[in-house]
Amino acid sequence: MGASVVIVGGELVLYLDPAGRGLLTFPGSEPDRARVALARAAGALRRLFRQRRRRSLRIERIDGEPAARSALADTFLEAGFRADYKGLVLERSDALAASDRAGFGRSVDRVVPDEEPVA
After folding, report:
1. What angle do CA 100, 102, 105 make, to 5 degrees?
2. Pairwise CA distance, residues 34 & 32, whole Å
3. How far apart are CA 106 and CA 66, in angstroms?
4. Are 95 and 46 in contact (CB under 8 A)?
5. Which of 18, 56, 14, 60 is nearest to 38 (CA)?
6. In this structure, is residue 114 part of a structural domain?
7. Which of 8, 12, 17, 53 is the most buried (most CB within 10 A)?
8. C-beta separation of 14 from 24 below 8 A
9. Cβ-contact 80, 98 below 8 angstroms
10. CA distance 119 to 117
11. By percentage, how much of the chain surpasses pLDDT 90?
12. Which residue has the higher pLDDT, 52 or 11?
């Protein structure tokens, strides 16, 4: 899996590094709107992962800090990730079985893996 970005409402929200272990967030200027965008972006990562062949997606760091201790961890837990000793994990079976609860992953403009050129 290469690097991926998630764009919501025309704005960059998430960057997932090529290894899938580090995540950078790009919060918007309005905190309430940024929380909604982040929740949708977390759900979009789950949808993207369903299309990949890996058994799990383990995010170990969010914005440079341990993922499980990040202030944003709850958003990913609500999107179907679970906490483990290395970070936040999404198992392939969970990603395939999960529905788009509470609108997670909806209204996302684009999830762009590095293999796809951005127009």
Report:
1. 45
2. 5
3. 27
4. yes
5. 14
6. no
7. 8
8. yes
9. yes
10. 6
11. 31
12. 11
Amino acid at 87: G
The encoded tokens of residue 7 equal: 């764009």
Give me 25's structure tokens. Answer: 């967030």
* Total Cβ atoms within 10 A of residue 44: 26
One-letter amino acid of 38: L
**Does the residue 57 lie in any domain?**
yes
* Domains in the chain, number: 1
The β-bridge partners of 25 are 14
Strand order through the sheet with 61-62: 65-66, 61-62, 22-25, 11-16, 4-8, 108-113
- pLDDT per position as a tens digit, 87-106: 999 886 666 565 444 344 44
The three-state secondary structure class of 12 is strand
Domain extent for 15: 4-103
Task: Tell me the C-alpha distance between 113 and 98, whole Å.
Answer: 21
